[in-house]
């Protein structure tokens, strides 16, 4: 079945460090890919998305490129801030799954000053 | 515009008891989803409503779970009787259109602890 595998955490970085959180997927057809973020005490928020191969999603300095050839959607940020500390979830959705979201296990990021 | 709200935020019950979780979607959103995250693992789909109808309930773990959405507005998820393995965070999401290429808007979740 369709699934998402993402890098296990937790990840601890210093402020201004470069961030990569790996995400790979298995899916029937052509999924849409998403990164959601959960800040402490809050619900999941959509961070960025890409709906077709080679699309790049970007938001708040984060980027991820839909790579069909490697079935990946890695999340990157060039310079993290303390306020980026959160849990990040990679997810996919396809009409073949009745459009429900398939999530990875989540990666907890802690950024220290 | 108010986001998706969930009540309660936390619930602690004993094994064998009943708990009812509530989700209020964003007004006008016909699609409502329930998800669950157990013990830091992946968030798993439970079911999907379109208005008051269950579109897909393939993720419901067993018949101790009952979801309703009377009138197509808010939804409830009842667990009866609760078991230890039901502990986790239950998320609700809504969207104006079915998922797929469209964003789902999530609530803050209800943390359920079964002792």
Explain this structure.
The complex is a heterodimer of chains A (113) and B (115). Chain A is mainly beta and 113 residues long. Helices cover 0% and strands 50% of the residues of chain A. Chain A is built from no helices and twelve strands. Chain A has strands at 3-6, 11-14, 19-21, 23-26, 32-38, 44-50, 56-59, 62-65, 75-77, 86-93, 102-103, 107-112. In chain A, strands 2, 5, 6, 10, 11 and 12 form a six-stranded mixed sheet that branches. A four-stranded antiparallel sheet of chain A has the order 3-9-8-7, with no helix packed on it. In chain A, a hairpin with a 5-residue loop joins strand 5 and strand 6 (44-50). The termini of chain B are far apart. With 115 residues, chain B is mainly β. In chain B, a hairpin with a 5-residue loop joins strand 4 and strand 5. Chain B is built from no helices and eleven strands. In chain B, strands 2, 4, 5, 6, 9, 10 and 11 form a seven-stranded mixed sheet that branches. A four-stranded antiparallel sheet of chain B has the order 1-3-8-7, with no helix packed on it. Classes of the chains: A mainly beta (113), B mainly beta (115). Chain A binds chain B through residues 4, 32, 34, 36, 41-46, 49, 51, 89, 91, 93-95, 98-106, and chain B through 3-4, 33, 35, 37, 40-45, 48, 55-56, 58-59, 91, 93, 98-101, 103-109.
């Amino acid at each position: 079945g369709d699934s998402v595998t993402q890098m296990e955490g937790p990840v601890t970085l210093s402020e201004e460090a470069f961030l990569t959180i790996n995400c790979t997927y298995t899916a029937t057809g052509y999924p849409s890919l998403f990164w959601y973020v959960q800040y402490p005490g809050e619900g999941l928020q959509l961070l960025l998305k890409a709906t077709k191969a080679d699309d790049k999603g970007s938001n708040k300095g984060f980027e991820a490129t839909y790579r069909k050839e490697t079935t990946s959607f890695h999340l990157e940020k060039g310079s993290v801030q303390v306020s980026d500390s959160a849990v990040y979830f990679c997810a996919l959705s396809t009409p073949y799954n009745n459009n429900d979201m398939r999530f990875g296990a989540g990666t907890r990021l802690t950024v220290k000053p | 515009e108010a986001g998706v709200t969930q009540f309660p935020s936390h619930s602690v019950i004993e094994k064998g008891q009943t708990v009812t979780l509530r989700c209020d979607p964003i007004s006008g959103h016909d699609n409502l989803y329930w998800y669950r995250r157990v013990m830091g693992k992946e968030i798993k789909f439970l079911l999907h409503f379109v208005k008051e109808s269950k579109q897909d309930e393939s993720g419901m773990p067993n018949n101790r779970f009952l979801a309703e959405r009377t009138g197509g507005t808010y939804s409830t998820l009842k667990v009866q009787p609760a078991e230890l393995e039901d502990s986790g965070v239950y998320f609700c999401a809504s969207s104006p259109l079915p998922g797929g290429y469209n964003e789902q808007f999530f609530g803050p979740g209800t943390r359920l602890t079964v002792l």
